[in-house]
Structure formats: structure tokens, C-alpha cells
Amino acid sequence: MVNKVIVGAQWGDEGKAKITDLMSANADLIIRYQGGCNAGHTVVVNGKTFKFHLIPSGILYSGKTCFLGAGIVLHPETFQKEITDLKEQGISLSTLKISPLAAVTMPYHIELDGANEKKAGKNKIGTTGKGIGPTYTDKISRHGIRVEDLFSKDILGIKIEDAISRFDLKTTKSELMEKCSEYAEILSPYVDFNWQSTLRKFKSKKLLFEGAQGIMLDIDYGTYPYVTSSNPIGGGACVGSGYGPKMIDEVIGVSKAYITRVGEGPFITELDNEIGTKIREIGHEFGTTTGRPRRCGWFDGVVARYGVLVGGLTQMAITKLDVFDTFDEIKLCVAYKDTRNGNIMYDYPTNAFEHKYFEPVYETHAGWMQDISNCKSFDELPQNAKKYIKRLEEIFEIPIKIVSVGADREQTILL
Ligand code: IMP
Q: pTM here?
């Protein structure tokens, strides 16, 4: 039995959904353990595109149980839109379950997210505007509304009064109570009040833990404060699911053959030039959730090594290798140079405000200049593509087990 966690090894958008989709075929229970509808996961099956924000893409397989764990934040209206879209595409949601312990994003959290960003001006984080930070802040400060509270009018009333006074809201208690009863109605078919039995039942089965965002957006280990408010790292899977560390056998890091980032914050290998634009256009690097153009750059080996360490990664999946098909030259960052003293650094500098002093140290690889999107095995890849993958593996110091050469489920090479 091999229980796996899927973790984004960069700043999110690594193509985790495709890997989760592949792994879901062999899983019995798929658990999303953190984040909320800030995530956007796209899966292409036989040319048909499915978009997910909160619901594990494993729902595409019939009979797999999908569980939204205690570590997630849930905005019921966005959730409703997602389930409606999936139902319209013929997807059954009968095996979808929500933890009653998950945090609810209230309308005031979304307003606050926007207001905080506006107030921060040039120091803004560049959030997705989905209320993620304020929802988690309420949870950690022990004021949050949990899914289970929506079904308990007394508790809910107290919590809503508390929110009205803390945030000085113009909305009345009865308006918010009304909103919450709508939320309860939306969620009630899915809330698993017997979640302890569910977790016990699946303890001896195959588990797949699905992370959102990426290690470099982790609240503790990412480029703080330019991060999200949860723990996408492998360790987050335990906290957010209710299963202990011994339940995890492998942690699969997902990394693009290059790097992207949305929102503000340091990005040492960023290409603010025509090469970055070329990557963005070929890789369709525009946000699934916000439509924002993603910042693009060369693969960063310092981020890679750091991610393996703090993310607890044991294997890698490399996605979007085909984006480089028309590049005659590919650069790869192997270290940073500290321009203050000329020191070469292999460890990630965690103070985001000092990143302006670091320059990438690159090695240059020859491209393969041919279409690899139909390659079905590692041997079929051109020599230079193989060399690039092997070099990435040396940097990660853990095996690369999957290489993705296109969006479709079929365009995947297993090593
Ligand atoms: P928040 O999670 O909306 O608070 O945004 C905080 C930071 O995380 C911003 O830089 C966002 O662009 C980034 N972020 C949040 N979710 C995702 C995601 O799913 N993919 C990529 N970046 C994300």
C-alpha cells in the first residue's frame, strides 16, 4: 500500500491537478488538505477540459471518495458554482464529503481581503481576492465560523455578533444569519458529520492527499509575507486531513520545467523580457482563478533543493517540458550570487526583502528543437531533453518519476 501526497514544489500552478488525476486512478480516498478557492486546477481528459478550485479532481473517476479536510477554507457560494458546473458536465458528486471542521469564508472576509490589499498599496501581496487570508486569520485567532457552526443556530448567533463587533460591519445579524442558512442548505448534502468513521474506514485503503498552491507560498516556509495563509508543504497533509505522519509513504513534488509566479514577491529567475513572454504564450501561463498573466522564469535549482527539504519530497513529477520544444537554449539556475560580497549561495535566502541583492548563476543547456508532445517513454525523448531531465534530477537529489509533455492524461511519461 502506498499513500501519497501531491505537493506543488514552486509558487503554485505546477500542473498538480494532472498528476493528482493520474494518481487518483489507484486511490480510494482523495483528500484536499489546505487552501480554498484561491486554487485553480485544470484537468484535460480526452480533449475535454475540467476546472476545479476546491473539489479534488479525483471526482472524475466514479466511485472514488473525495474529502475536503479540516485544513481547507470554503466559500459556500463559490463551492455551489463549482458543483453546478461539474454536474452540468455530467460528473457525479455522490462521493464528495466535507469536514465539519473546515473554515467558512464569509462575505466580510472577501471584502477585508480587498480592503487590506488596497490599503497596502505598493506593498500589497497580490492575493487572489478570495478572502483566504482573513478566513485563516479568524480561524487562528479562534473567532472563525466552521462548517459545523452553520448547523447550530445558537453558536452561529454568538459568532456572528462577535464578527459584527470586531469588523464593525454594516450588515445586520439577521442578514448574516439568513446568509448562513443558505450556506447550510448548499453544504448539507456533503457535510460528513461521521467523518471520524470515514477516516477510520479508509485507514487501511489507499489515500491520496492533494495539496494546493506550492511550497514557496507556504505560510511558514515560503517567501513570507508574499505567501498564502496555509501550509501546502507535505507536512500540511497531516494537519489538514486528520491522518498522522505514519500514514504517508511518498510525497510527490510537482515542478514545471521552468517557473511561474502570480502576485507580488521575489522571483530571482524571473524573465521580464521576450523569453518570459514566449514561455507565457506557449505555456498558456494565465491564472485559472483570476486570469492574471503569470510571471515566468528559468528553472531555479535553489528553490528546487529547498522545496525537497522543507516540503518533505521523496519523488518528483516534471510538467510542461514540451513548452521548451522551440527553445534552442535553456538556462537553469544552480545557485545565487550575493552581489554584496560575491558569495555563491546554494541555500535559499528566506528573507524576501533581501532578494534584491541576489542574482541567478546559470548554466546553459542546448534545446532539442522538436515536438516531444507525442513521446510515450523516456527513451523516445530527444537526447537533449533527456539530459535536461537528468540534470534536474541531480539537483533535486530525489528520483523524477513522471515527465509530462502535454495537457492530456495520455501525454505523460512514467519513469
Ligand atoms: P491568497 O492565497 O489569495 O491569499 O494569495 C496569496 C498569494 O498566493 C498571492 O501571491 C497569490 O497569487 C498566490 N496564490 C494563491 N493561490 C494560488 C494558486 O492556486 N496558484 C498560484 N498562486 C496562488
A: 0.96
